[in-house]
Design a protein that fits this description.
This protein is α+β, with helices and mostly antiparallel strands. The protein folds into 4 domains: 99 residues, Uridine Diphospho-n-acetylenolpyruvylglucosamine Reductase, domain 2, CATH 3.30.43; 121 residues, 2-Layer Sandwich (Uridine Diphospho-n-acetylenolpyruvylglucosamine Reductase, domain 3), CATH 3.30.465.10; 96 residues, 2-Layer Sandwich (Alpha-Beta Plaits); 129 residues, 2-Layer Sandwich (GMP Synthetase, Chain A, domain 3). The protein is 37% helix and 21% strand. Strands 12, 13, 14, 15, 16, 17, 18 and 19 form an 8-stranded antiparallel beta sheet that branches. A 5-stranded antiparallel beta sheet has the order 5-6-10-8-9. Strands 1-2-4-3 form a 4-stranded mixed beta sheet. Helix 1 packs antiparallel against helix 4. Bound molecules: flavin-adenine dinucleotide. Flavin-adenine dinucleotide binds next to strand 3, helix 6 and strand 10.
C-alpha cells in the first residue's frame, strides 16, 4: 500500500527541513503542469490538473541522493522537474507523486578555458549560461527556442536540439560528462575526457532519459570561442521538394552552415509575405565562424542555391528571423483562448522526408475537420537527412474531452504516417507522456533493451512513471 500524503510530506520535512518541502496550493498548481499543450488547453476550459503530493527543492547532489533514497524506500513515485518547458508532459506529475524541483541547483561551477568546457548544476537556465559565457568571450552553440526557460539538466534529459545545430551539433554532441543520482540514491559520475572507447558510452543512458532513470545533478558541456564573422542570405524557393534537394546538396558537399531553415509556403506567407510570392517557400541561411570562414562558406552555398534556380532575397529575412525567433506569445494567447496550437517534430532520411511532409499535411487536411492549419519547416539538417517541424492549429469544441479527442486525432495521424514513411517520431522534443505509447512501435525489436534498462536502473518503477516508456497495457490512440 502506498504511504499517505501526510506521512510522505512529514518524512521529507524531517529529512530536508520544512522550508524545502512546499505544499501550498500555488506551488502545487505551478508544478502540476509543464508546457504540454493538451492539459493547457483543457485548463483554459476549466479542467483542473491533478496536483502532486508536494514539491521538494534540493540544493546539492547529496540532498538529491538523500531524497531519492528516502522516496525509493517508501515506494513513492518521483518526477524530476527542470524549467517545465517540455511540451509532451514529461514533467507532469501524477497525484501520487513527489516533484523534485531542480530550480535551486542553479550554480555555474567552473569554466575550463584550456579544455573548452563549462560545468554547471542542472537547474541553470541555458539563456543565463549563454550570457555568462558571452561576457567571457565564449558561446554554448546551443540555441533552442526555449533558451530562457529550459535548464541544462532538462536539455540533456530530453536530447534537445538548438537552432544552430547544423554547425555546433545537438546536445549529445555538446555533452562532455555528467553526474547523476540513481533512483535508490547512489551517485554516479562520468569523467571528463574528449573521447573514449571503453564500451558503450554511458552518457547516452542519460541523454533522453527524461527523468525515468534518475536525476542529472551536474553537467559539463563544450564551449566555443565567440564567432567573429557571419554571412546571412535568404532565397525564395519554388517548392519544399526543391528546397530539400538544395539543402541535401549543401550537406552532401561538406558544408555546415549554422542555420539552415526551409519554411513551406504557409510559413513563408505568414512571416515573409513582403518578399516571397504566393506559393513560394523560403530558405534562410546563416554561416559563422573564425575570420574568413563564413564568407567562404557563404560563397559556396550561394553558388549551389543559384545553380538550383533559387531567387536571392538578401540578408533581411534572416535578420528578421534572428530578432523574433524566440517569440511565442501568440501561441500562448491561442491556447488561453481554447485553440489547440502545437508543434510536432519528426525526422527521416533524405529519401523519405519529402514524402512524409506531403502525406502528413494531406492526411490531416482530409481527415481532421477541426484542423485550421498545418504548416512545416526543416530546421536541423545532416548529411543523412533532415527534420520536419509541423505547426498545427485546430478549433475543438469547448469541452476537455473533445479537446483530447481532436488532439489525439492529430497526433495519431502524424505518428502513424511518420512511422509508415520510415521516419522517427521525435527529432528533439522527446517522448514525455504523449509519445510514450508509440515507443514500442518506434523502437521495434530494440524496445526490449529500453525496458531492460528501465528495470535494471529503476526496478520498482518509481522514476517518472508513464514518461519515456508507456504504462503497462497503454496503447497508442488509433487514428
Ligand atoms: C516555446 C518552446 C520552444 C521550444 N524549443 C525547443 C527547441 O528549439 N529545441 C528543443 O530541443 N526543445 C525545445 N522545446 C522543448 C523544451 O524546451 C525542451 O524539451 C527542454 O529540453 C526541456 O527542458 P526543461 O528544463 O524545461 O525540462 P522539463 O520540461 O522540466 O523536463 C523535461 C523532462 O526532463 C526531465 N528532467 C528535467 N530535469 C531533469 C534532471 N535534472 N534530471 C533528470 N531528468 C530531468 C523531466 O522529468 C521531464 O521528463 C521548446 C519548448 C517550448 C515551450
Amino acid at each position: 500500500m502506498s504511504p499517505s500524503r501526510d506521512s510522505v510530506v512529514a518524512g521529507l520535512q524531517s529529512l530536508m527541513g520544512h522550508d524545502r518541502v512546499a505544499t501550498d496550493t500555488e506551488t502545487l498548481a505551478k508544478r502540476s503542469l509543464d508546457t504540454w499543450p493538451l492539459p493547457l488547453v483543457q485548463l483554459a476550459m476549466g479542467a483542473q490538473p491533478a496536483a502532486p503530493l508536494c514539491v521538494v527543492r534540493p540544493r546539492s547532489t547529496d540532498e538529491v541522493a538523500r531524497v531519492l533514497a528516502h522516496l525509493y524506500r517508501q515506494g513513492v513515485p518521483t518526477v524530476p522537474y527542470g524549467g517545465g518547458s517540455g511540451v509532451l508532459g514529461g514533467a507532469k506529475p501524477g497525484p501520487d507523486s513527489v516533484v523534485l524541483d531542480l530550480g535551486e541547483m542553479s550554480r555555474i561551477l567552473s569554466l575550463d578555458e584550456d579544455n573548452l568546457t563549462v560545468t554547471v548544476q542542472p537547474g541553470v537556465f541555458l539563456g543565463k549560461l549563454e550570457a555568462w559565457l558571452n561576457e567571457r568571450g565564449y558561446i554554448t552553440g546551443h540555441y533552442p527556442q526555449s533558451i530562457d526557460v529550459a535548464q541544462l539538466g532538462g536539455l540533456v534529459a530530453t536530447r534537445s536540439a538548438g537552432q544552430f545545430s547544423t554547425k555546433y551539433g545537438n546536445i549529445e554532441d555538446l555533452l562532455v560528462s555528467l553526474e547523476a543520482v540513481l533512483p535508490d540514491g547512489q551517485v554516479m559520475r562520468i569523467k571528463d575526457v574528449p573521447r573514449r572507447a571503453t564500451g558503450p558510452d554511458l552518457r547516452h543512458i542519460w541523454l533522453g532519459s527524461e527523468g525515468a532513470f534518475g536525476v542529472i545533478t551536474e553537467v559539463t558541456v563544450k564551449v566555443f570561442p565567440r564567432p567573429v564573422d557571419r554571412w546571412l542570405q535568404a532565397y525564395a524557393v519554388p517548392t519544399m521538394r526543391t528546397g530539400m534537394e538544395v539543402i541535401h546538396r549543401f550537406l552532401h558537399d561538406g558544408w555546415r552552415p549554422a542555420v539552415v531553415r526551409l519554411h513551406d509556403e504557409i510559413e513563408a506567407e505568414r512571416g515573409y509575405a513582403s518578399v516571397v510570392n504566393k506559393g513560394e517557400s523560403i530558405l534562410l541561411l546563416l554561416s559563422e565562424g573564425p575570420e574568413g570562414y563564413a564568407q567562404a562558406e557563404g560563397r559556396a552555398l550561394d553558388r549551389t542555391a543559384l545553380a538550383a534556380g533559387l531567387h536571392p532575397l538578401g540578408p533581411a529575412p534572416v535578420e528578421a528571423w534572428l530578432e523574433h525567433r524566440n517569440d511565442v506569445h501568440e501561441f500562448e494567447q491561442f491556447i488561453r483562448a481554447g485553440l489547440i496550437v502545437d508543434t510536432i517534430e519528426v525526422s527521416a532520411r533524405w529519401t523519405d522526408i519529402a514524402g512524409i511532409y506531403e502525406r502528413v499535411a494531406e492526411r490531416l487536411r482530409r481527415e481532421v475537420p477541426e484542423l485550421i492549419v498545418v504548416s512545416g519547416h526543416s530546421s536541423h539538417s545532416y548529411p543523412q537527412g533532415t527534420n520536419l517541424y509541423f505547426i498545427l492549429g485546430a478549433q475543438p469544441p469547448r469541452n476537455p474531452a473533445e479537446v483530447e479527442r481532436v488532439y489525439k486525432a492529430i497526433w495519431s495521424r502524424v505518428m502513424e504516417t511518420t512511422l509508415a514513411g520510415g521516419g522517427t517520431i521525435s527529432h528533439h522534443h522527446g517522448v514525455g507522456k504523449m509519445r510514450a505509447p508509440w515507443m514500442p512501435a518506434e523502437l521495434g525489436t530494440s524496445y526490449k533493451v529500453l525496458e531492460s534498462l528501465k528495470s535494471a536502473l529503476d526496478p520498482k518503477g518509481l522514476m517518472n512513471p508513464g514518461t519515456l516508456l508507456p504504462l503497462s497495457g497503454q496503447e497508442p490512440p488509433r487514428p
